[in-house]
Amino acid sequence: MKHRICLPLLVGVVAGLSACSSFKATILPQQEGSFTAVATAASYKDAVENAVGKAGEVCKKQDKKLVILDRKEESKDQGDGEVMKAAKTAADIVLKLGTLGIVSRGGDEDYKVTLQCKCE
């Protein structure tokens, strides 16, 4: 009988905790009270929103304001020449035609944003 009561309670608690934050980022503690927020996403905008949102949550829990000390951005497309970009586009078109549009062009981790932060 106890197991039947505990399991739904545990499922509810886990679901509630996962609903607390919709931002997908990793927080890494650093020296002197600072931390790093790292987020990856299919778009630059989503990566920034996730990193800033998660960092903001950390500071909000401390009743402090977020201060961004440094920002680093990366893209899987960085460094690609025009010929490589054209080749990727052509390959994407062929794949989409071959699979009737089932294949998507972007991945979930095309953009990465790393923020150095602290709470004040």
TrEMBL record:
<keyword id="KW-0732">Signal</keyword>
<protein>
    <recommendedName>
        <fullName>DUF4156 domain-containing protein</fullName>
    </recommendedName>
</protein>
<feature type="signal peptide">
    <location>
        <begin position="1"/>
        <end position="24"/>
    </location>
</feature>
